Amino acid sequence: MTPKSNLRPPVSTREVLALSAFLATGTTLAADAPAQPEQKKDDKKQEGEAQSLGDMVVEAVRQSLYKPEKLQTTKYTVPLRDVPQTVTVVPKEVMKEQGSTSLRDVLKNVPGITMQAGEGGVPNGDNLSIRGFNARTDLFVDGVRDFGGYSRDPFNLESVEVSKGPSSSNSGRGSTGGSVNLASKTPHLDKNAYELMLGGGSDNYGRTTFDVNQAIPQIQGAAFRVNGMYHTQDTPGRDHVDQERWGIAPSIAFGLDTETRWTLSYFYLGQDNTPDNGLPWVPRTSNNTGLTPGIPAVDFNNWYGVLNRDYEKIATHMATSVFEHDFNEKLKFRNTTRFGITDRDSITTSPRFDNTPPYPSATVRRTDWKTRDQVDTILTNVAELRYDFETGPFKHELLGGFEVTRETSKNYNRVDANAGLLQDTNLYYPSPYIPGYSPAIYRDGAGTDVTSDTVALYAFDTIKFGEQWMLSGGVRYEDFSTDYLSTTAAHAYTALSREDQMYSWRAALTYKPCDNGSIYLGYGTSFNPSAEGLTLANTATATNSINTDPEKSNTVELGTKWDLFDKKLLLTAAIFQTDKTNARTEDPTNNGDVVVLDGEQRVRGFEIGATGEITKTWRVIGGYTYLDSEITKSKNKLEVGNQLMNTPENSFNIWSTHDLPKGFTIGYGAQYTGERFNNNNRSTRQLAPDFTTFDAMLSYKVNDNVTLRLNGYNLADKEYIDRLSGGHFVPGTGRSVVLSSTFTF
Prior knowledge:
mainly beta, six-stranded mixed beta sheet, Maltoporin, Chain A, about 50% strand, about 750 residues, 22-stranded antiparallel barrel
């Protein structure tokens, strides 16, 4: 394990702990097979013949392990099959089989998502793009925005829901390419359950999780649940990079299975990691001789940080109250209140080539370091009322909501008194140590302080008419205001503020040719305000300028969804087009130019997916996404006609498991990501090659209480680029093996 820096006290203590492709059209998919004709009964009874009752057969409804029936979000009231939007749900069973330990692991099951590296104003963490558009601020936990910059662990997740396409009416600001909702585990009365997982493996891997669900006999309708986790590992294929985190998530519910329910929960995740900004790109404009622009010809294990300076300590807390009351079967109320805080303390080296005369060709400087001494908070309350009613032949499922949210972000700037002792390192043989250097990091008085307030009203309605038609839609009004205060080390203050009032909406028409299938045509809009990332600037060329109105996007999608094999397998297909109609742009060749909303970006594509059970012993989750992206208009002539950054044309994933005799189960999977660029400018952009990785799993059920599982990751030990940034890239993890045992009672 890499030694940890003690530049600042830890943020918390550890005690606080098969169908691999689907070419679909709605008319070619068959409905469920019709029932067999009823056999005629003989009404005449033979005299003296004994009569007997036939055997009574009670058939339990078997739930699919891979395919949930409904989404957690309250804004969609229909089954997943009838949701008029591309939505992929990764259930906990898939996470368990794959041994997922991060949100990035989970999202490998969703095509059309690519990862980005932190740089500049964006810290390391779960930075991603969906269908070509940045979605770093489009992460939600149980429907509430999760803004903090950190890497999430799935130990407390029931499922992960990825909704694609612009839909600010659902989630508020952002969501141009889509959004990700993390559905937490909650107490239930189904049965008392206890689970413990112990795992070990290569690269010093160690992980344990537990999940306890217990009814409270003394209180009718009450239960509590506790999930916990400890994880440690050296990152496979990366020198000196390691992870250590621990978490605890208790919750208690009252009134379960009654008209009035109340759930209280708390979530804590602590982390103590060695951060990784990977390898430097060789710039296309570099003066360094002997280097070919692009990926440097070095070992992908190389790490260019400084061991006694670089560290990452993060603590995340969430306290949530969910109160629900059913006035009757048609009128229901729900109120969610949450306070969350993410405390991040980190220093990360961004490796850059030494570009000063005499331009040494194999020297990487380490003076470009990023400091984060930052606290993000959120306080929100969301009240919703659902009313089901009929007006003549029309059946309505109406949902109205009111949201009030305050987000704050404080970031203190820091400097290094011993920065003059920093030394460059060799590109081919980097050293993580600098002789004679000891960091002297302190706050210099500079920093930023941001407060953002959101007030929103929204309404959704699903109207069912006839046996085969549904019209659904929603509208949201949002007032988003931000106060930004920047302070220099000399105590000079710059106060900025901006307020945006925005409307967004979506609508869809769905036709159901039969009960187990749907065909839909949908349209949705989204907006991206300047202060979306809780920053503002008053410079003319800043993309977060206080003088720039929100960007607007819209999408149209034609799709179909079908439940097959006794409704255990969901097949989906969709074609779509997303347009950002007023993208921010400016002419970099004109020193007097300012950012204006005069750009246009377009992404066209199609997506197919399969999730569920083909047979009782064969499960599958997979999909393919094709993205044809283009910057159709820009004041920067070097961008026009280019693909959007970090947007591969093709991406594909498949994970399949088979239950074998004698308690064995095998699983195997593949993930493919096509080539993509790290920026939009054709004169400076770098190309990340395509790649394919393969994983496998073998499990053995010893008995009803014990299961052994062996997982192998990146079996071919493929070297590939996982996360992109402008000046650097982070390689994907190398080959690794994990053996775990799960005990359930």
